[in-house]
Amino acid sequence: MLLSRHLQGEDVALLTPEYTETMRRFSFATFYPPTERYDSPEHRLERLHQAMARHRYVILSNPNNPLGLYSDAADLLDACRQHPGTVLIVDEEYIEFQGPGLSLAGADADNLVVLQSTGKTYGITGTRAGIMWTRNAALHRAVQLHLPAWPLSLLDITVATAALIDQDWARSTLARVRRDAEQLEQILTSRFGSAVVPCAIHYRFVYLQDPEAAAESLEAHGIAVRAFDGAVRGRVAGIRVMAPASTDEFDLLRHAVQRLPGRNGAVAGTPYLGKSVLEPAPAGL
What is the pTM for the complete model shown? Predict the structure, then answer.
């Protein structure tokens, strides 16, 4: 939110698909959607270089939301070296799900910004605790000027601190979640084949022509998923499914998947063609 305020009116590019809120906050940016049938780390890296060659700031999430695709740290740092006049902003909201020690924070790059929060990893999104790391002193100072006097409450600080201290819980829980997600991928792939995006984090994305129908059918059998309308700027059509956390939940998912109607064919991740736009964030937020 603070970055979107500071960069309003700047030359910004955004690799899509992306977080809904990020696309809304940066609706003024130039979007770089996938042009291949399915997006991939290789295609994302290609678009990243295109964007960094043309714009002052480039934003992407890594791992990506909603697809779950991960770009290697070495590739992103190489892009920073090849395009020293462009600032790369990397949202690492899901980096802990990918694996330990993968954050770019602390890297030797003056044109890199890393964003992280405690929300997804620890399930405490409501605390709104997070960091922005960069060696770019001017950008750091500019964003600091937008900080409110009391950005977090004492309760937020207490909860976030307790979560960060308990590293044993984080390691064991994240390892279990990754195993559950691998099982989730097997179940979805048995039904949807190559339309399932393979990744290493806690959810899977499935490219579908009619995501709403699939979501309604799954919900009728007790499975809640996120449906994405490919007609909306910056999105591709499909559903995002979170990993179940118990044997009963996996059984429920298998039952729901088996009862999906039709074939729910996969659809290509196509570029935005102007059907609709995400509304910009209200002024003053």
Answer: 0.86
